[in-house]
Amino acid sequence: MHAVILAGGKGVRLRPYTTALPKPLVPIGDQHAILEIVLRQLAARGFSSCTLAIGHLGHIIRAYVGNGSQWGLRVGYCTEDSPLGTMGPLLTMMDRLPEEFLVMNGDILTDLDYGDLLSGHRASGAPLTIATYARKVAIDFGVLTTESGRVVGFTEKPSVDYRVSMGVYGVSRDTLAGYTPGLPLGFDELVLDLLKAETPPHAHEFDGYWLDIGRPDDYDQANAEFSSRRDLLLKGV
Q1: Where are the beta strands (DSSP E) in 17-141?
Q2: What one-character DSSP code corresponds to residue 201?
Q3: Interior/surface letters 173-195, b for 16+ CB within 10 angstroms, e for the rest
């Protein structure tokens, strides 16, 4: 099994932590970088190789990860000279990718079984599988429904339930055929194209632990929770 880890972003929202370090290498707890945790998890779930899509401060990631042998992985690299979006980097490495593979952001903490997601993607026959997570937003106001200047509905402080993308995907190589290598391709564009073509993605619903390390508050939460979540996140490692 092969994974592509997207690690080329500048981590603007996580500054000042990312002033000198690429976001995937910011430390969690007192021992591990986020990327190290991800690589350990991949190896424990049966992955034998991965490609790191790097850009901003990519030389630091190369120096830290090397060839991946310390985690039992074969690690290769693909360098972005300019931002290519979530899916754009994949187009530049198509000749190195198997028929089905995992794609994920390099800055998330989760106990999702990556091998199970990829197996489910293969079994589904879908062009794309998206790991999804349940979210609930509480609205602190009375919500009005209006039509032509009249109030026709009212709900007092409702909550809204929805599912979000976790930043982890199962992808089939054929799904990317037809897109031009070297041009940006976002996750949103790919999903909208699949929906328009009536070939919808498969949803891999997950309700375990997931945290996207995107902002300083998220990073602080990850560090505060890591000691109690360590065994869960590094299970089998």
Answers
A1: 27-28, 32-33, 49-54, 74-79, 100-105, 108-110, 128-138
A2: P
A3: eebbeebeeeebbebeebbeebe
pTM of the model: 0.85
10 or 203, which is more confident: 203
CA dihedral 152, 158, 160, 161 (to 10 degrees): -120
Q: What contacts 116, CB < 8 A, 6 or more positions away?
A: 45
Checking if the pLDDT of 236 tops 70, the result is no
Alpha-carbon distance of 171 to 196, in angstroms, equals 18
Q: Please report where in the chains the tokens 């074969």 appear, as a residue.
A: 74
Give me the residues paired with residue 49 across strands.
Answer: 2, 74
Polymer length of the chain: 237
DSSP H helices, 81-169, are 88-91, 114-124
Question: In 173-218, where do the E strands start and end?
Answer: 202-206, 210-212
176: pLDDT strictly greater than 80: yes
* The residue type at 212: D
What domains sit in the chain, N to C, each tagged with a CATH number? 2-134+162-233 (3.90.550.10)
Instruction: Output the pLDDT for position 154.
Output: 92
Q: Distance between CA 154 and CA 6 in Å, rounded? A: 44
Residue 31 has a CB neighbour count (10 Å cut-off) of 10
pLDDT at 101: 95
